[in-house]
Specification:
By secondary structure, this protein is α/β, with parallel strands linked by helices. About 35% of the residues lie in helices and about 15% in strands. The strands form ten sheets. It has a six-stranded mixed beta sheet with strand order 6-5-18-17-16-7. A six-stranded mixed β-barrel has the order 25-32-29-31-30-33. Strands 12-9-8-14-15 form a five-stranded parallel beta sheet, sandwiched between helices. A hairpin with a 7-residue loop joins β30 and β31. α14 crosses α18 and α14 runs parallel beside α20. It is globular.
Length: about 775
Amino acid sequence: MVRDAPREDPGEDGIIVGAPAPSAAGIPGVLHAMAHVRDQLGVRRGARSLLALNQVNGFDCPGCAWPEAAPGHRHTAEFCENGAKAVAEEATLRRITPAFFAEHSVDELAARSGYWLGQQGRLTEPMYKAAGDAHYLPVSWDDAFAIVADELRALDSPDEAAFYTSGRTSNEAAFTYQLFVRAFGTNNLPDCSNMCHESSGAALTETIGVGKGSVSLDDFAKADLIFVVGQNPGTNHPRMLTALEAAKRAGTRIVAVNPLPEAGLLRFRNPQRPSGALGAGIVLADRFLRIRIGGDLALFQAINARLLAAEEARPGRVLDRAFIDAHTDGFTEMAAWLRKLSAADVRAATGLADAEIDQVVRLVLDSEKIIVCWAMGLTQHRDSVPTIREIVNFLLLRGNIGRPGAGVCPVRGHSNVQGDRTMGIWEKPPPVFLDRLAAEFGFGPPRAPGLDVVDTVRAMRDGRVKVFTALGGNFVAATPDSSVTEAAMRRLRLSVQVSTKLNRSHTVTGQRALILPALGRTEIDVQAGGPQFVTVEDSMSAVHASRGNLAPASASLRSEMAIICGLARATLGERVAVDWEGLAADYGRVRAHIGRVVPGCADFEVKAARPGGFVLPHPPRDSRTFPTVTGRARFTVNTLDVLRVPAGRLLLQTVRSHDQFNTTIYGLDDRYRGVRHGRRVVFVNPDDLAALAIADGDQVDLVSEWVDGVARRAPDFRVVAYPTAAGCAAAYFPETNVLVPLDSTARVSNTPTSKSIVIRLEPAISRRQ
């Protein structure tokens, strides 16, 4: 039986904390997933949706970007617990009609939690909030497009507008969106990559020439050793656990590097195996390094220094000198730098004993084929780019790029965030892409770099951006320095959100605001040219089709493609010779343009229609050729600057709960960490609590400290004693995004430093009053 949306917000006073889970998945995972599906879809609709999820002729999961197995090798249930939750959220039978907005003012909605907003259901009609109005009111599609067009044309410069993109956007929509934006005259295309894997792209482009991972799913079972660093696959991309299990059964050893022990990396109970569903499952990590937050650069430098020393002791038997000499440059400078590495600095940065690192080095020396996987635990630090460059150094030393069972594996969090970048969603597009775009469409795209996410917030704050359009996502909740971001949004003349569900970004608006409701991944898309499909790209550069199988939630919904083309027609008129109506009617026409513009996408329509799609070219993986500035893979010198935290302070990282995907809150439990009925918790090492004279269960405010002297405060958090690394703490985002200074960003990539925030714990103000 489908449950109605909650009328009231649940409070945070009933938080229950128990022991962390000793394993991930198993029967509890199945039961939790099915409960979400039943409550939002019902049994029959839920089964129909899940059986099409991640199948060859079905739709791609709107959650993470982990790849599927080849056609013919997929399970009937080719999804995880959180994938099922994502489908339940999108395919829900709950609806938000104009009556809902008549009942709830924007200010009232702004006081609700993200969980409550998301539970209200699917948006069904375009809605408009005029300047000074307290409520959203219905608006026609034509009038909505005219409102946007009038505001955009009234700007003094196209650069006074910014166009955000979420990772759920299809390749076709992303390509068409960037075409519209560049035809309008700006490269202001911030996207969610700026806040997650921008550091990966920057480091990999510099060192191997391609800003994407170099491994395939098949490589996992061929590897001798896999590092999983700064990543929690049990919550963030649970299907990865199946690949790690297959590798483990093939003899691969696994090293987990994380400040927190994560259930999925300790023991996995695969619900599709009897031994997982009913038995003890399988231990995945051979070694768990409970590293201090931000210590990963020091760890890999220490490993690399030990490998260099081992090579000196046994010349020609440790490093792959043939590969180094033939395919790389910078080795001599890198080796000289690492010989000066301070062991004391390594211990201070990592919190690890020398013996722990020595044990890992022995595993490395016994392994010929090595993969290193990582996620946002590496990418959201000040020194994220140097850290990932050092991982590349590690792999290059033993020739572990460009051969089976080895390589770099940045695991993307959202289902098509990598595809968006491939399709041109980037504020700093390469000249070759703009040249092809110009040749294909006959106009001159702007060449000056645009604004990324952080610079967009700064520009809105300073009045330099006046119109903001978001193609999906939850910009207000996802960005750092929440009070600054919200004040910046309220300075806008117009904010536009293309969305499927209600979220906080609909409640923190410009003077005028539009909500444009879109079809979801799960829904059938029929246009003037007939039924349509879209494509997505996963974390391993595989592109494949996605076709929804459910009737749309409302007859008033439009596809992302139809919305983009409607905006473009209204705004640009005859300014550029693009058949917007034809593109909206037949997505095959978009794919034809993509094939001629996007490198590696020739014959896009034909290849995308194949069962399982196709894999984009990757020269380092395919032929050990490296399109860097020197034409070789590049060893780099990376300065180790240990982040030293003042006495009485902790280093905080933001994390997801298990009932969460990005800023979408599925529920208020974190089963794997033992937390139920609430999210305002902070995990702290028991020894640190003793030193701070704070008890497990105390109520505290989190106050961040940064060079600007501003005391950013996240109030009313329940302290949870937890086996995190000493000196470190963890809490959920988006609740703690308020603590991340807007100007505290990673060097080179400008990514917010959400994984390294210096905080102090104070008795909660609410309890002192």
